[in-house]
Amino acid sequence: MSDKPTASITLADNSQCIEFTTGCPSVLHCLENQKIAVAYQCREGYCGACRATLVTGNVEYNEEPLAFVREGEILLCCCKPNGHISINLK
Fold first, then answer.
1. Of 15, 39, 76, 85, which is most buried by a Cβ count within 10 Å?
2. Which residue intervals define the domain 2Fe-2S ferredoxin-type in the entry (predicted)?
3. Domain range holding 14?
4. How many structural domains does the chain have?
């Protein structure tokens, strides 16, 4: 796998921008690599503990999550950004 940046993630609360690379399996993994503390439990889209608000942009899911996801929310553990995204961590 390559570590080529393919997208970016902006944290809306502090404007921190993080490059998402092709080697990252999920947004959660990318944030953890940058030492950003994020709540999570299952890492597979079952529990919803890693729920965040998608401010702008689009994501694609590795697999459709089983946890309920409201309009404007994403599960960080099982999605990847499709281009630039801005999120609010909960």
1. 76
2. 7-90
3. 5-89
4. 1
| Whole-prediction pTM | 0.90
Pairing of strands 84-89, 5-11: parallel
Distance set, CA 49 to CA 17, 31, 37, 76, 83 (Å): 23, 15, 13, 9, 24
Phi/psi of residue 61, nearest 5 degrees: -90, 140
d(C-alpha 53, C-alpha 73), whole Å? 4
Q: What does the block give as tokens for 50?
A: 């890693």
Which amino acid belongs to residue 3? Answer: D
CATH number at residue 70: 3.10.20.30
